[in-house]
Amino acid sequence: MPDAKPPLLAELVWSDHLRFNATSGQSAMVVDGDGEGGPSPMQALAFGVAGCMAADVVAILQKGRHPITGMRVVMAATRAPEHPRRFTSLSMVFHVTGNVPSEAMDRAVSLSREKYCSALHSLRSDIALDVRTTIQP
After folding, report:
1. What is the pLDDT of residue 1?
2. What pTM value is reported for the model?
3. Are residues 46 and 92 in the same domain?
């Protein structure tokens, strides 16, 4: 069994209005409840899920020695109409550049979705997730 990682520590310090200076380890950003001075908490959550899956997919393709040369991920997140306005569905399109076989791309997305993406697995299990891919040589 792998060693347990220490808890992820994050600190937010209120600066003004609905803005907070957020730090975790060596990383820092502004989180803004209005989404003006930095990403809103929900935008940051969307970045986290999309970034987690994107990093997984790149790592899996590289380990498989598939020649990926670029990636762009577009996410649309639908929110509940009433509070709490949580995500109810996520739709992602992975646009990959390189001579990557579609089977390898499908496997990488599936592994991220089903096993590796910690951010996705931290969300409620009843969130609908639609993922599509495109590959350009």
Report:
1. 65
2. 0.91
3. yes
